[in-house]
Design goal:
single chain; Rossmann fold; pyruvate-formate lyase- activating enzyme; OB fold (Dihydrolipoamide Acetyltransferase, E2P); 20 helices; binds S-adenosyl-L-homocysteine; binds iron/sulfur cluster; binds FE3-S4 cluster
């Protein structure tokens, strides 16, 4: 077996450390020479499990790999480099990883230069990296959530040294700006606003896998969002394990409300954020949400349990009444808000009464949808050390009862949408029926409807006809060609070249000198026509005419506008092709 170098291994006690002031790094595109020649003609494959934080890490890794010259494949068997990006939040998330590693044995057998790397939250748990490298001799590289931006140098080491490498840091955290990334979606984007989590809910592994909570500078976030707006992205989701505590560590008065207000001021039609922590959701945040029509009226507000005693054992820093009061305050200011939540069933020693409290809270809030999880002990977290008296059967029975209640309120919410018209951002063909389009309404509900494929990425009005608990069936209103044309106009208004063209066009219209030139030109043409046959007069008129023509041709504003006409025309030709 090839030697494995264990450069650093995770230490969960170190991961608990909370120190002020994260280290700031620039994560530019330095590409080691060896990796460039290795990457030529080689393809990478990434499989990501877990939450949006991991999806964003995948986009960043893809950015680094493509900058080195790798190309992407969606076909596992074609991969020369495979990366498995893991999640540790529940046991079933971890179970999937072992099967996925097994899949790549065939690649390793076939291709001696094949590289398999495993990264993500699961690698931040003690013992996992050693276990994996011992079990799977073809696993070449293990790294963690704190060195995603080192991916190229780590790969380079593996290629040059021909050794296997484990490098999982347990830094409480740093912030890397300026990382390359390849977005997985052309219309919807995730933007990290903070990393890590300081809440330490007693069941949760995330503060150990992602380090201390640290906020990105608002300027960096706004720059990323402005760039997305310019590129025509229609939906931006701000990400943090707890977005409501955003900015507090910057200690300069920045808050999530102030950031959200600034992001909402940008030209982005749909803004969302994940995840909210109830007791840190302030009235100022509710006001910003209510004030800005481009902040979607959908809020994911994890409650976990409806029982005060259980919430206390979970280390959640709010009460049932505090949560319900927040829901009332939000609904008073934003009556149309759709609320979703996360719920944990069977937390250690959850009593029947505590569970009933969760059921009654779900009835009371009437969520438009909810994620439900059976508690899964995570080694190293305080709750995992509690001796649990509730049987697995009981937990499953409770899970089923809770699912019924959630299904009831979900159906109720879906039914209330029937007859209404929603603006749906089209994702593409539906997974179940490719002849049907699907997308999400601004309240987070999945809508299916008939329409042409070229509407992918456009926003179209859809009237809801039928509700099916978790999805809705609707009918598109209006002419699809008109929707496509509106979408093209939307993109053109944002495209830097088209924007410059429109700016120049506007400047041309307003310029008094050009106006005068135009008028003189028309008069000169007329004078030329009228003097036809009177040679001297005609020659003089022609001279004036030609002089004006030269002036018009050489006018910088007019010349620049003409130069951009070609680029704008090219965009329109692409649109014509997409309609075919
Ligand atoms: N920061 C977010 C998301 C955390 S993980 C938040 O605070 O809501 C997403 C969800 O997974 C959590 O909301 C919780 O419901 C669930 N979860 C976390 N740890 C779990 C565990 N050990 N067992 C079962 N569910 C868990
Ligand atoms: Fe986990 Fe709690 Fe942090 Fe959410 S707030 S990531 S549940 S510790
Ligand atoms: Fe999983 Fe890590 Fe996200 S544990 S839920 S991928 S933060």
């Amino acid at each position: 077996m090839i030697k494995c170098v264990y450069r650093s291994l995770p230490d969960m006690s170190k991961a608990r450390n909370r120190v002020d002031g994260p280290l700031l790094f620039e994560g530019g595109k330095k590409v080691p020479a060896e990796i460039s020649s290795y990457a030529k003609g080689r393809r990478f494959f990434i499989r990501t499990y877990g939450c949006q934080a991991n999806i964003r890490d995948e986009e960043i890794m893809a950015g680094y790999l493509e900058s080195a010259g790798f190309s992407r494949t969606e076909n596992e068997s074609e991969a020369d480099l495979a990366i498995i990006n893991t999640c540790a939040v529940r046991e079933n998330a971890e179970d999937k990883v072992y099967g996925q590693i097994g899949v790549f044995k065939a690649n390793a057998d076939r291709n001696p230069s094949f590289i398999l790397a495993v990264c993500g939250c699961m690698m931040q748990e003690e013992g996992v990296a050693e276990k994996l490298t011992k079990t799977y001799p073809y696993l070449s590289l293990v790294f963690g959530t704190h060195n995603v931006s080192d991916i190229l140098s780590l790969l380079n080491e593996v290629i040059v040294s021909r050794k296997r490498l484990v490098d999982v840091k347990s830094f409480p955290g740093e912030i890397v700006e300026g990382m390359p990334s390849v977005r997985l979606d052309g219309y919807k984007a995730f933007v990290n606003i903070s990393y890590g989590c300081d809440k330490f809910c007693t069941y949760c592994i995330v503060p150990y896998t992602r380090g201390r909570e640290r906020s990105r500078r608002p300027e960096a976030i706004l720059k990323e969002c402005e760039d997305l707006a310019e590129r025509g992205f229609k939906q931006v989701t701000l990400l943090g394990q707890n977005v409501n505590s955003y900015g507090l560590d910057l200690k300069d008065g920045t808050t999530f409300a102030s950031l959200l207000e600034q992001v909402a001021g940008l030209d982005i039609p749909h803004i969302r954020f994940l995840t909210s922590y109830p007791s840190q959701f302030t009235d100022a945040m509710i006001d910003v949400m209510a004030r800005h029509p481009n902040i979607d009226k959908w809020l994911h507000l994890p409650v976990q349990s409806g029982s005060d005693s259980c919430l206390k054992r979970m280390g959640r820093r709010y009460t049932r009444e505090g949560y319900l009061d927040l829901v009332r305050r939000i609904r008073a200011k934003i009556p149309s808000i759709a609320l979703t939540t996360d719920l944990i069933v069977g937390f250690p020693n959850e009593t029947a009464d505590e569970f009933e409290d969760t059921l009654s809270l779900c009835h009371e809030v009437s969520y438009s949808s909810a994620f439900m999880f059976i508690y899964s002990p995570r080694r190293g977290t305080p709750a995992a050390a509690i001796k649990d008296g509730v049987s697995a059967e009981e937990k499953h029975a409770r899970f089923l009862r809770l699912s019924q209640v959630v299904e009831e309120t979900t159906s109720k919410h879906s039914l209330s949408m029937v007859g209404e018209t929603y603006s749906v951002l089209v994702d593409g063909p539906s997974k179940k029926d490719p002849s049907v389009l699907s997308g999400y309404a601004p309240n987070g509900k999945l809508v299916n409807f008939k329409g042409p494929l070229y509407l992918k990425g456009a926003e179209v009005p859809v009237k809801i006809k039928e509700s099916h608990t978790y999805s809705l069936i609707g009918e598109m209103i209006g002419d699809p060609i008109v929707h496509k044309a509106e979408d093209v106009a939307y993109l053109l208004r944002r495209d830097p070249l088209a924007k410059e063209y429109l700016r120049l066009d506007e400047a041309v219209r307003r310029d008094p000198e050009i106006k005068k030139l135009g008028e003189d030109f028309v008069s000169a043409k007329k004078a030329m026509a009228l003097s036809m046959g009177r040679r001297e007069e005609y020659e003089a008129a022609k001279k004036t005419y030609e002089g004006l023509l030269r002036k018009i041709k050489n006018h910088p504003l007019l010349a620049n506008r003409a130069a951009l006409q070609g680029a704008v025309g090219d965009i329109l030709l692409q649109v014509r092709d997409s309609l075919k």
